[in-house]
Design goal:
The complex is a heterodimer of chains A (about 300) and B (about 550). By secondary structure, chain A is mainly α. Chain A has 13 helices and no strands. The longest helix of chain A has about 35 residues. Chain B has about 550 residues and is of the alpha+beta class. Helices cover about 30% and strands about 20% of the residues of chain B. In chain B, helix 9 packs antiparallel against helix 11 and helix 14 packs antiparallel against helix 15. The longest helix of chain B is centred in the N-terminal third of the chain and has 22 residues. Chain B is globular. Chain B starts with a helix and ends with a strand. The chains are: A mainly alpha (about 300), B alpha+beta (about 550).
Chain lengths: ~300, ~550
């Protein structure tokens, strides 16, 4: 499996190169002049504008700009944004925040989603199954923005259970936004687990296990659940990458200074260096977590072998 | 999974990556825990975006950065909350016999937060640094009136490429006389010069700044009532504490202030309601209707220097006739728009100069009043083609859609001219279009003053010297008579005399109408019950040193 992992990791290099090139090209293609916008209503002095254009290689043709950017990048220099902030510093400040948010969200997915799914799957058409069905339908159909505001208003402001905004209270601050961010995925994980469990419970090997006289708990946990988790793990793995990049709404409403908001702001300000730096990293995470998922397959299903 | 040595290395690389992630995650948990309001004389204040980092006075022109600098620096002069110039800053006196050579004398005893004294050299070094174009400081043009400025600007070709380095790195118009005195020579007389010097581009910098400007931008060292306790964390904020050796009169009333960055006004407002934030220096538009009832005395309103207008592309044949420009302005009833869309938080504009400055004349603009009959007459006289819709331009995503549309509806109803909204460009596209005479109809822009003088509302917006790309005269209006009156005002011997000339210059605009004056801004803020004495000044900033903690 080591060779498999190494090959997969090596594969990330061309993928990241391609991704950074595409993103760089897209930001480059955006109309407008970011340096001009720095001054706002009041233009900057012409020589200052010229200096900034030179500092950021903006007068070079596209390919030259990209090659210069890559050249700096391989030396570990992510460049600076137009306001003089170090991009790498921005990333190292913001990424952990979003990583923590995503971690909380994934924990919710695993704990709530799988438990609800398993219970609903075992007791199909029971009252509990219906509760899961109805509640997941509601959660999936409500836009995340609405969900965020409702949660913030009721649980934060009215009941005062959670901080309304910010991350000043440590991990506790991440619970509410994490739950909101996870909501849709929790529902999806629950439904996926339920279906998967229900199917596998009818499978021959489960019937065999039961016939052998194994205790029900062992049949469910060791035989059924283990197999049922394969699609769920696939989904959660892919979802981690999505959560990292897709937290814009949650981060805005709950004032979480993470990567999602930064990407959004940077695209608006045409901060190419920031966008490319962050998105390339996100691509890396996406690939990395997918790799983790593939490795987990082998753990869940010993028949799967990578060589 | 059985790991051999070789395989183990690869796996451990993955684990290390994961550990790095979590390790980075651990370090910024501790800092903010003491941030609860009102303990030991502390309060929290919201910012609505990151300041322009680095926090350098000469490179900060937007409001959030200026709010932070307000706490960290004190300039040569200060402005009263109503805009009057006060000698409560570093300058003891700013004097001139000919309004061209100015002698600036500093008060004794001022120190930077690192303990070093504030001297004449601190100002001269800072100004040279800001003006020198390779340093790419946004405030560079504030020194364009100082003798020798051109020598500090890199030479550029038509395409904007730098072809030669500047020939000098010090302004010849600046001269240090002794520790507490320096002399500034301008390229032309400018009687209002002392008024300008409270702006943050003119703030002093300590010696340590020039050793490492990058580090100083993260951990600013100023001479103001508060000093930074640590680096500003983008997206989060930082805490400043009272500077015990502050030499000014308005020393800080509290021990610490925490600046907290909010990405969204609504969230900040909710946090004040929930008691987790002390001051929100702005109120979301949706909440303006209910905020006065909900907050009572803790809801504040104050006039601001902000001014919103619709500029005419005077280079466009359709808008080249002043009668057309007068008529369109008279076709808009501003009152109902301010009520319906801004809930009374803006005032209909009735002059080219905002009410917050000395020299504002109430009701100066006769074409700013709705007069449908006269407007229609003027349009007929000028032979305006009403069959063609006019295009109304504004930048997208900044909340201008509603009022521009309302103005368009009024033009349609009152004058029978249809309109097309052109609000799909962001600022990075919108501004270059204005520079290049690309807009085809009235365009929205705003203006906020740098220093309280009518000159700051007139010269940068309508003078020939301010034509793009050098200045903000996006209407491309030029009138030698106007330029001459501004020059005379700048050279006037006294402030009263200067204002007379500026008023005359404004009179010319009031006839020529290069813009449609629309609104004057009103600032709103809300605060918690734990703080009092919250004052919004004419720049829309909270006076951080004056706030007291009561709870």
């Amino acid at each position: 499996m080591g060779r498999y992992i190494a090959r997969r990791l090596l594969l990330t290099i061309p993928v990241m190169l391609g991704a950074s090139f595409l993103i760089f090209a897209m930001v480059y293609a955006l109309p407008g002049d970011p340096i001009r916008a720095l001054g706002g209503d009041r233009p900057l002095a012409p020589a200052v504008v010229a200096q900034l254009r030179e500092d950021f290689n903006l007068n070079d043709p596209f390919l030259v700009q990209y090659v210069k950017y890559l050249g700096d990048l391989v030396q570990g220099d992510f460049g600076t944004d137009f306001r003089g902030r170090d991009v790498l510093e921005t990333i190292t400040q913001r990424l952990p925040v979003t990583a923590r948010l995503a971690l909380v969200a994934v924990l919710f997915e695993i704990v709530i989603g799988i438990v609800a799914g398993v219970l609903a799957g075992i007791r199909r058409n029971s009252f509990l199954d219906n509760v899961v069905l109805v509640s997941t339908t509601i959660v999936v159909s409500v836009p995340i923005l609405v969900l965020a505001f409702v949660a913030q208003y009721t649980l934060g402001l009215r009941l005062n259970l959670f901080p309304i905004a910010g991350i000043r209270e440590g991990w506790y601050s991440y619970l509410l936004p994490g739950l909101v961010l996870a909501a849709g995925s929790v529902a999806y994980v629950a439904r996926l687990t339920r279906t998967s469990m229900a199917e596998n419970l009818r499978a021959d090997y489960v019937r065999t296990a039961r016939a052998k006289g194994l205790p029900t708990r062992d049949v469910i946990v060791r035989h059924t659940l283990r197999n049922s988790l394969i699609p769920v793990v696939t989904f959660i793995g892919a979802d981690i990458g999505t959560l990292m990049g897709g937290a814009i709404v949650t981060e805005t409403v709950f004032n979480i200074p993470g990567i999602g908001r930064t990407v959004f702001d940077s695209i608006q300000a045409q901060e190419g260096a920031v966008v490319v730096g962050i998105v390339t990293l996100l691509v890396f995470f996406f690939i990395f977590f997918n790799l983790v998922v593939d490795v987990l397959y082998a753990v869940l299903d010993p028949r799967i072998r990578y060589e | 999974m059985k790991l051999t040595k070789r395989r183990g290395a690869i796996v451990s690389a993955g684990i290390t990556a994961a550990l790095v992630l979590t390790a980075c995650g651990g370090d910024d948990n501790g800092g903010g825990e003491g941030g609860t309001a009102a303990e030991g004389g502390s309060y929290t204040l919201a910012l609505y975006s990151d300041p322009e980092n680095p926090l350098v006075p000469g490179n900060t022109s937007e409001s959030e950065g200026a709010q932070v600098l307000e706490a960290l620096w004190t300039g040569l002069v200060q402005y009263a909350a109503d805009g009057a110039v006060e000698y409560t800053g570093v300058a003891e006196s700013i004097e001139s016999e000919d309004n061209q050579t100015w002698t600036i004398t500093l008060n004794e005893g001022w120190t930077f937060h690192d303990g070093t004294p504030v001297t004449a050299q601190s100002f001269v070094d800072a100004w040279n640094y800001t003006a020198y174009s390779p340093n790419a400081q946004g405030g560079s043009y504030f020194f364009s009136h100082v003798e020798g400025y051109a020598d500090l600007q890199a030479e550029t070709d038509d395409a904007g490429n730098i072809v030669a380095e500047p020939v000098a790195d010090e302004l010849s118009g600046l001269e240090v006389i002794d520790d507490l005195t320096f002399e500034v020579t301008l390229d032309a007389p400018f009687a209002q010069y002392p008024v300008t010097l409270g702006y943050n581009a003119f703030h002093p910098l300590p010696e340590s700044f020039f050793e490492d400007p990058e580090a100083a931008g993260k951990l600013p060292i100023g001479n103001g009532p508060f000093k930074a306790d640590g680096e500003f964390v983008p997206g989060q904020g930082f805490t400043v504490s009272k500077y015990e050796d502050y030499a000014g009169e308005n020393e800080a009333q509290v021990d610490t202030v925490e600046f907290v960055v909010y990405g969204d006004i609504d969230t900040a407002y909710l946090d004040v309601q929930g008691g987790n934030l002390d001051i929100s220096p702005d109120v979301p538009p949706d909440a303006i209707g209910t905020a006065p009832d909900e907050f009572g005395d803790a809801y504040l309103e104050a006039p601001s220097s902000g001014f919103t207008y619709l500029g005419y592309p005077t280079y466009d044949e359709r808008f080249s006739d002043p009668r057309v420009r007068q008529a369109l302005s008279m076709g808009i009833d501003r009152g109902p728009i301010t009520e319906a869309i801004f809930q009374g938080t803006r005032e209909p504009a009735d002059a080219f100069v905002a009410p917050v400055v000395d020299g504002y004349r109430e009701g100066a603009c006769e074409y700013c009043e709705l007069d449908v009959d006269r407007a229609n007459e003027l349009l007929d006289e000028a032979g305006f083609d009403r069959s063609q819709p006019i295009e109304l331009w504004f930048n997208s995503g900044a909340g201008h859609d509603a009022w521009v549309q309302a103005a368009g509806n009024q033009l349609r109803e009152n004058l029978g001219i249809d309109y097309v909204l052109r609000g799909d460009l962001d600022f990075p596209q919108y501004l270059p279009l204005l520079d290049s005479q690309g807009v085809t109809g009235p365009f929205r822009l705003g203006w906020a003053m740098d220093y309280p003088s009518p000159q700051n509302y007139l010269e940068p917006l309508y003078s020939s010297a301010a034509l793009p790309p050098a200045g903000s005269n996006y209407t491309f209006y030029t009138n030698p008579e106007f330029d001459e009156l501004i020059a005379q005002g700048n050279q006037a011997a006294s402030n009263e005399e200067a204002i007379e000339f500026y008023n005359q210059a404004e009179d010319i605009l009031l006839e020529d109408m290069p813009i449609i004056p629309m609104f004057f801004d009103v600032e709103q803020a809300v605060h918690s019950e734990d703080v009092s004495n919250v004052v919004i000044d004419v720049f829309g900033h909270i006076r951080t040193a004056e706030v007291t903690v009561t709870g």
